[in-house]
Amino acid sequence: MGKWTPEELTCINGIFAKMDYDDIGPKALQRCLIVYPWTQRYFSTFGNLYNAEAIIGNPKVAAHGIKVLHGLDIALNNMDDIKNAFAQLSVMHSDVLHVDPDNFRLLGDCLTVVLAAKMGSAFTATVQAHWHKFLRVVVSALGRQYH
Asked: I need a surface site. Which of 4, 6, 85, 109 has the fewest CB within 10 A?
């Protein structure tokens, strides 16, 4: 799963080169909190998350969405060893924050939807396959501490 073809690496790097972190990060986390409301329990310090409008207008949600998206830079910069690169984040999310590891997949799905909407027709089936592989490796790495 950690082996990458030159085509996959070029594709993933190309996505990140064009990534608008300030737009895509907040939208992905907002979508996750709206579509999967049980994920809100991990953000009790973020204030009002009572409805979609409140979530979309919440600056703490936006800031954390950007932070999460920048966290993927760790994977991008460590494509040959994503599992070890995410070891500390895995421990923190498991042992300190007690995040259900399935939420990583849910957020990844929301990120994919937002990215596909942003990229439009450039988000081909091949691009989606490469992106999905990248997220599977990241999600597996983040869930490593749980196993």
From this structure: 6
Q: Is 83:2 a contact under the CB 8 Å cutoff? A: yes
What is the Cα–Cα distance from 131 to 18, expressed in whole angstroms?
A: 14
Q: What's CA 27's distance to the chain center, in Å?
A: 11
What is the percent of the chain with per-residue pLDDT over 70, rounded to a whole number?
A: 86
Q: Does residue 31 surpass a pLDDT of 60?
A: yes
Distance CA 82, CA 123 (A): 24
* Nearest-angstrom CA–CA distance, 29 and 1: 26
Per DSSP, helices labelled H in the chain are 6-17, 21-35, 52-56, 59-76, 82-85, 87-91, 102-119, 125-142
